[in-house]
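Continuing the batch. This is chain 6 of the set; chains 1 through 5 are on the previous pages. Same settings as before, nothing changed between runs. Recording input and output for traceability.
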Amino acid sequence: MRIVDPTSANWIGPGTRVDGYVVEGVIGSAGMGTVCVARQWDSRRIVALKVLNAEVSADPAYRRRFIEEARWAQSLHHRNIVAVYGHGETTDGILWMAMHYVPGTDADRELRAGRMPPQRTLHIIGEVATALDHAHAHGVVHGDVKPPNFLLGQGERVLLADFGLARSTDDRTPAGRHGTVLASAAYASPEMLRGLVVDRRADVYSLGAALFRLLTGKPPFFDAASKDAVVQAHLRSEVPRVTQYAPWLPAAANEVIATAMAKDPADRYRSAGELAHAALSLR
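Output for chain 6:
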């Protein structure tokens, strides 16, 4: 077994023991931590293990968000949502979360490999919409709907991941009150970017932006000069016509995207499923 220093940036690798799990490989690593393939010591179950680094684990705001993510995800049981089996903290203060392991890729990576057929896009959006409707029905707003969080499993199964920015549908606290708005600017709703109260319709907006990305290969407002310009475009600019970048699509696709991404939440589809149904009519 490896003797490791959790304050080191590269402390996790094959053989590392994290509480009751043994790491078998690293899936990816970023500034906040590492996601690994791990084996549960007693049951031998293979999981995806998210482990925060020491600095992030010690930050009160990140600790709270990480624990809330685990609790939200554990409360949801659905074939299109990545299951969370448990979470905890090592004796030296490192936070971890064990999740269902989905071998394969995600929608963003698949798209980077080449243009995605429209039928494939509509299938993915339909699966994610089903997951979102389930979450909303159980009082959870996802808060960060985007293609990298659409995991592509076996048998055409798509799973929605990463509830790190989730909140209750009954939470009337403005988004900005929870701290800096961390949702991905390319897909975030105007009310999220303004730090206002958000509900399920913010997820509908983001799903519409994700649909635009999967259909065209580009996120909405991709040609903005900076991240700040992207934010301002979401707040003030008309949604680009999707047929401008994907001319093979029917003209009705423009209306589907425009409705999903309406600036006023009241003008959007009432649910993710309603958006998916409208998108499927484009076949």
